[in-house]
Amino acid sequence: MTKTVQQTTLHWEAALTVARGALLKGQELGIRVAVAVMDRGGNLLAFARDPGAPFHSAKIAEDKATTSAGFGLPTKQWWPVLEGMNSPGLLAGIAAVPRMVVFGGGVPVYVGQDCIAGVGVSGGSEEEDEICARAGLAAAGLTADPG
C-alpha cells in the first residue's frame, strides 16, 4: 500500500503580507528591520528590508526564519533549553549548525497543528524583532502557535 503525504504551504501572497506587516510594526516601533519568510525546507518565500536596516540583518532574519520553520519553535526558546544542558559537545554542535539561531526574533507559522513556515526579523532588540514577526503573522491572520 502506498501512502502519500499532503503538506500545507504558505502562499506567496500571505508571505508578502507577513513581511509588510512586520516592516510596518518596525516603523511604528522606530526601528529599521529586515524580514524573511522561509518555508519548512529553508526556501525563501518573501523578503523585505527597510533601507536603514543593518547590513547583516538580512542574513540573520533568514537564519531566524529557517530555524523557526525547521523546528516549529520561536528562536528565543533555544537558549534556555541549551543553558540547562550539561553537555559541552551539544553546545558546540548546535553552535556549528549552519543557519541555526538561538536568540529571539524568529517565530514559526502554524496552520492547525502543522508548522508550515517561519518568520525571522532582525534589526531591533530580540524582543522588538519578535514583536515585529508576530505583528506580521497577525496581519496575515496567522499564528506562531499550534492550535
Question: Helices and strands in order, then pairings?
Answer:
Blueprint: H1 12-29, E1 34-39, E2 44-49, H2 57-71, H3 78-83, H4 88-96, E3 106-111, E4 114-122, H5 126-139
Antiparallel strand pairs: 1-2, 1-4, 3-4
Helix pairs in contact: 1-5
Short structural summary:
InterPro entries: GlcG_carb_metab_protein, PduO/GlcC-like, PduO/GlcC-like_sf. This protein is 42% helix and 18% strand.
Task: Give structural attributes.
147 residues, alpha+beta, four-stranded antiparallel sheet, globular, GlcG_carb_metab_protein, PduO/GlcC-like, Cobalamin adenosyltransferase
Q: How many β-strand stretches?
A: 4
Q: Helical amount among residues, as a percent range? A: 40-55%
Unreliable sequence segments: none
**Radius of gyration, CA atoms, in whole angstroms:** 15 Å
CATH topology grouping: Beta-Lactamase
* Count, helices: 5
The portion of residues forming beta strands comes to: 15-25%
- What's the main sheet like? 4 strands, antiparallel
- CATH class term: Alpha Beta
Helix vs. strand class:
alpha+beta
